[in-house]
Design goal:
This protein has one domain (72-294): Divalent-metal-dependent TIM barrel enzymes (TIM Barrel, Alpha-Beta Barrel). The chain contains 10 helices and 12 strands. The protein has helices at residues 13-21, 44-57, 77-97, 117-134, 160-169, 182-188, 195-208, 244-250, 253-256, 282-294, and strands at residues 2-5, 26-29, 60-65, 101-104, 143-147, 176-181, 214-219, 221-222, 233-234, 264-266, 272-275, 278-281. α3 (77-97) crosses α4.
Length: 297
């Protein structure tokens, strides 16, 4: 079940139409401008157009990515409170659109002068998640996916243990899942490069977090080497991961054959390329690569 992240320029439904046009099964999108704290309110009519377009185009598993401005791990009280309010708004928007999950980068312990900024940062993240969910009311159903990060700078979430602690310290663990980003865990030092290393990494994840927590994948090759702690996405098979990790992942029965299937979203660089004199969208090229890997090519 393959998807990609698409622009909402011109309306939320535009992301769905773009996904359908290129032959994807599912879609990821921002619910507002990702570089702004506040977004234009979603009207009931806009929400219905979005839902109707999903039904019409048979695009499933819509996923919202929260704003990159949000930092639920910050020790700066002003930024922390602003981030909680913005994240709660992201969840509210997803609820209105009928989107089942919001994926988020856990956060960074900016301004933390404690003896253990990692632990205190993770505790702040867990508390912020609880406050955001509680603000929606008891009838809300939207869930949250903690995304594995590359560990760039002081970002939290690059160790599987970080995710486990957030799940442990949250009062709402049943509303939380994980989104595995292939580029990020590679950059964080977890190897997927061959069958042995792939199995070792997912066995480790299962022991620390639990495979049942995985609700989505971001499929991205990496422009930087394993363990670099640098987040630079590349096209599938064009980076330091190569094709083998993706071949293993898309054919892993735990994620593709046992219901419910886990959706996998591309976040590879946008643009076009020339193939045999024809201009082709890179998202389409990456999709075809993945589908060939499923078919054993």
């Amino acid at each position: 079940m393959f998807g990609a992240h698409f622009s909402i320029s011109g309306g939320l439904e535009q992301a769905v139409l773009a996904a359908s046009e290129l032959g994807f099964d599912c879609v990821q999108l921002f619910s507002k401008n990702s570089s702004q704290w506040k977004g234009k309110p979603i009207t009931p009519d806009a929400a219905e157009v979005f839902k109707a377009t999903l039904r019409e185009k048979r695009i499933t598993h819509p996923l919202i990515h929260d704003s990159y401005l949000i930092n639920l791990g910050s020790a700066r009280q002003d930024l922390y409170e602003k981030s909680i309010a913005a994240f709660a708004d992201e969840l509210s928007r997803a609820e209105l659109l009928g989107v089942p999950n919001v994926v988020m980068h856990p956060g960074t312990p900016t301004g933390d002068t404690s003896d253990d900024p990692v632990e205190s940062g993770l505790r702040r993240i867990a508390s912020a998640i609880d406050q955001s969910l509680e603000s929606l009311g008891k009838d809300a159903k939207v869930g949250i996916l903690l995304e594995t990060t590359a560990g760039q700078g002081a970002n939290l979430g690059w160790k599987f243990e970080h995710l486990a602690r957030i799940l442990e310290w949250s009062n709402c663990p049943e509303r939380l899942g994980v989104c595995i980003d292939t580029c990020h865990i590679h950059a964080a030092g977890y190897s997927l490069l061959n069958q042995k290393e792939y199995e070792k990494t997912f066995s480790l994840f299962d022991r620390i977090v639990g495979l049942e927590r995985i609700k989505a994948f971001h499929l991205n090759d990496s422009a930087r080497e394993i363990g670099s702690r640098v987040d630079r996405h590349a096209h599938i098979g064009h980076g330091t991961l190569g094709l083998e990790p993706f071949r293993l992942l898309v054919n892993d029965a735990r994620f593709r054959e046992i219901p419910p299937k886990i959706p996998m979203y591309l976040e590879t660089p946008k643009g076009t390329t020339e193939i045999d004199g024809t201009t082709v969208d890179w998202d389409f090229v990456n999709l075809q690569v993945l589908r060939k890997l499923v078919n054993g090519d």
